[in-house]
Amino acid sequence: MERWKSFLIEAYEQSLALRERLDAANMSPYELETIEQLNGIPVLKKEQLPLLQKHQLPFGNMITTRSNELARIFMSPGPIYDPQGKEEDDWGFAEALQAAGFTSDDIVQNTFSYHLSPAGFMFDSALRRIGATVVPAGPGNRELQVQLMNDLQVTGYVGTPSFLHLLLQYADEKGIHVTVKKAFFTAEKLTENMRDQFEQRGIHVFEGYGTADCGCIAFEDRQGPGLKISSRAIVQLCDPISGVPLDEEGEIVVTIFDRTYPLVRFGTGDVSRWVDGYKGERIVGVLGRVGTSVKVKGMFVHEQQLKKVMADVGCPLFQAVVTNEGGHDQLTIYIEKELDEEAKQKIKNVIRITPTFVSVDRVNGGERCLIDRRKW
């Protein structure tokens, strides 16, 4: 408790936005005795970040240092600017990777993006922290990815399960031997069917949960059921409207031990529930979303941002539907007019994934513009 109290006092003194939040809630970190006292602070919703940051660019006065003293600045869909401090493992994923069996003996292919998104650097820094050798492959280009795996005798993989599945399919088609023995997944749901397929090939797989804002929040450690809460996080499952902590299922609300970007009572928008008998210690994983954002291929698609870019390209009437066939996410956008390639590219650049466009006579205006029809 003393660790968290000293952290909150430091953050309160250095982050103007946090100080204003705590003062408005009549919360003094100097008088903090229990974690439960934080419940009086209203939840800061993830979907509030774009507006807060726009009002006070680039970070809404939430960080504890000046922008030019950061190691890196990223941009997530929203847009949301994500700061990186100068800690060696700033997002805290080393703990999760060590629990998954990654060591300094491993050569690890990191297939998360290094471009604007923080995901690539999240795992790069964590892997370097534990002494592993990193292959900064990024996403896409399966032929080159498989060649790297074979030529370098890669032993570990970090990325989404669907992309590793694609790489292994391609390797099998070409008769290429892959030496990967361990994998860590996040940003996408790992189905039991896909887990079984990897394990049958001798690949030990683990999954974790985190966000671009918070870094590592929970991870699989095989020491108990579900995902263990990170040592750098306080997790509550709260009513998405009132913010009151619940005993079972609710929105994942996080307080993160991050001296540069102290997020306190931050509502991720993801829904989970406690593992029976492990309240406050283990969650079952992500069960869905509250609000109007959907994660597709590891990237959030925000309904308001999608509405804006569709209107910008002259197509305000549309419906975007997320499905998952064969373990691979697909975003299909139904429209009432044809779009040229320039407009399609603009949409792709904004939402950061590649959708399929389908022309229809009439878009169903009775439903939301962004619908998740995946069934797990």
TrEMBL record:
Pfam family, one: AMP-binding
Residue ranges annotated for the AMP-dependent synthetase/ligase domain, each copy included: 129-254
Signal sequence, start to end: none
Superkingdom of origin organism: Bacteria
PANTHER family with a match to the protein in the record: BLR5969 PROTEIN (PTHR43845:SF1)
Protein's UniProt name: AMP-binding protein
Organism: Anoxybacillus gonensis
Organism classification: Bacteria, Bacillati, Bacillota, Bacilli, Bacillales
